[in-house]
Specification:
mainly alpha
Length: about 230
């Protein structure tokens, strides 16, 4: 049953790919040409050291922007920069409902620090409960929903200061984590590749030793010809 489902999925996927890559349809639709050039390129799906690390960097940048729609934004940016789309999307999962509030507090601290250097007046960073209310308010506002009952009780001026610091801190933190994530992913890729070669070499050496030992035993057990 699983093999049947896998075969059906592959057949459907290949049919869709051929449909979207058909020259006549590409010629007739500029939008389809753009989509095909960026989203159907093998480089954004087949990982290489550069595309994998680049996808991780894009994901690190986007995950620190604590707004809805992280995964579509990460996928579009990864396609535009020709890096791995799946790893860019999966990296966004690091900021989830469990980690988002601490990330918001950290971003506000970073934003306050940078804005303070530039001479701007900022409000003190919120505690966890106030940060949770801030994220809920921002989410409702971005979706165009009623925010009257979701306004945190710290005042509008404090709220706006937090939002500004969070946006600035998110960009700075995301850019820094993106650079770190790129080189860390390259290092992990290299370590994994080295370990894989080592394991293959060890297995091949052991197999050769076993083969040689078996050949020697077979030769010793063969009676001499008189």
């Amino acid at each position: 049953m699983l093999d049947l489902a896998r075969g059906y999925f592959r057949k459907t996927l290949f049919r869709t790919y051929r449909y979207l890559k058909h020259p006549r349809r590409l010629k007739a639709s500029p939008l389809l040409r753009w989509f095909s050039r960026h989203f159907l390129d093998k480089h954004v799906w087949k990982p290489t050291p550069h595309t994998f690390a680049g996808g991780a960097a894009i994901g690190c940048l986007v995950m620190m922007q604590l707004v809805p729609g992280q995964m579509p934004v990460a996928a579009i940016l990864a396609a535009l920069f020709r890096v791995n789309i799946p790893i860019a999307i999966m990296t966004c999962w690091i900021t989830n409902p469990v980690t988002m509030v601490p990330a918001a507090v950290a971003e506000i601290h970073v934003g306050n620090w940078l804005l303070g250097i530039l001479g701007h007046t900022t409000a003190a960073a919120p505690d966890m409960e106030s940060a949770r209310g801030l994220l809920h308010f921002v989410s409702l506002w971005l979706r165009g929903l009623d925010t009257a009952g979701a306004l945190p009780g710290d005042g509008v001026s404090t709220l706006l200061s937090w939002v500004k610091s969070m946006l600035v801190g998110g960009v700075i933190s995301g850019a820094g984590l993106g650079v770190i994530g790129y080189f860390a992913t390259l290092l992990l890729w290299q370590l994994f590749a080295t370990a894989r070669v080592t394991v293959k070499t060890t297995v091949a050496a052991r197999r050769a030793v076993r083969t040689a030992t078996a050949s020697e035993k077979k030769a010793d057990s063969t009676p001499p010809v008189v």
